[in-house]
Amino acid sequence: MGIGAVSKLTSLSMDFLQHIDRDVFLFLNGLHSDILDPVMYFFTKILSWLPLYIWLIFLVIKTHQRNTWMYLVGVAIAIALADQFTSSLMKPFFARLRPSHEPSLEGLVHLVNNYKGGLYGFASGHAATTFAVATFVWLSLRHAYKHIAWVFAWAVTMTYTRIYLGVHYPSDILVGATVGCLFGIAVWKVTSTFEARLEKNKRA
Predict the structure, then answer these.
(1) In angstroms, how far is CA 143 from the centroid of its own chain?
(2) Region 155-174: what's the mean pLDDT?
(3) What span, in angstroms and rounded, lies between the C-alpha atoms of 151 and 141?
(4) What is the average pLDDT across 81-104?
C-alpha cells in the first residue's frame, strides 16, 4: 500500500471517528430538561464541589498525617500540569472549535444560560484536572479506604456536565481524562517515592 493510499485511509478513518463523535455528542447533549439545566450548570463549577474537596483533604490528613503536605503539594502539581498541558499546549495546537462555537452545529446544540466556554475545546481541561485529582486521590488512599474508587463517579459526573452544557465533544472528555489520569499516576509515583525515601532516612 502506497503512502498516498495510507494517507487517504487515515483521513477517511479520522472523518468517520469525527462523525461518530459528533453524533454521540448530539445524542447526549439532547438528553436535557428544564429541571436538569440549573443542576448541571451548578455541578460544572469547580467551587460547587468544595465540601467534597474538604472531605478528601481530611482523609489525606487522617491517612498520611505528618506527610500530608507532600500529598497536598502533589495533587496541586498534578492539577497544574494537567491544566497547562491541555489549555496551553493542546487547545492552541489542535485549535478544534468547541461544539458551542462550531458554525455547522448552530441551532443544534443545547446551551444553558448561553454559556459557551472558550473558543477551543480539545482536550477538556475540566476532564484533565478532575481525573488528575481522582487518580491521585485514589492511589493515595486506596489502601486505607477500599471504597475510595467512588471518587471516579465524581469525576465522571463533573465531566459529563461539559457535554450536557454543549461545550465539549465526547473525545474532548476522553482524551482530557486520559491526560489527567497519566499526570495523576506520574505525580503520585514521585510523591510516594519521595515519602518512602524520607521515612527511610528518618529511621536510618
Answers:
(1) 24
(2) 97
(3) 11
(4) 96
Contacts of 42 (CB under 8 A, 6+ apart): 48
Q: Is 114 exposed, middle or buried (0-12, 13-18, 19+ CB in 10 A)?
A: exposed
| Residues 28, 170 contacting (CB under 8 angstroms) | yes
Query: Residue 171 corresponds to which cell in the numbers above?
Result: 473525545
Element housing 92 (H / E) = helix 91-94
Angle subtended at Cα 77 by Cα 56 and Cα 178, rounded to the nearest 5 degrees:
80
CB 95 within 8 A of CB 89: no
Residue 24 CA, chain-centre distance (Å), reads: 18
- The pLDDT score that the predictor gives to residue 17 is 74
Domain ranges of the chain: 3-203
Span 180-203, mean pLDDT? 89
pTM over 0.85: yes
CA distance 32 to 165: 9
- pLDDT > 90: what percent of the chain? 83
Q: Is the pLDDT of residue 2 over 60?
A: no
Residue 18 is which amino acid?
A: Q
Residue 196: per-residue pLDDT = 83
User: Residue 45 pLDDT more than 70?
Assistant: yes
Question: What are the helix (H) ranges across the chain?
Answer: 3-29, 36-43, 50-64, 68-84, 91-94, 125-141, 151-164, 170-203
Q: How far apart are CA 123 and CA 27, in angstroms?
A: 20
The reply to whether CATH 1.20.144 applies to domain 3-203 is yes
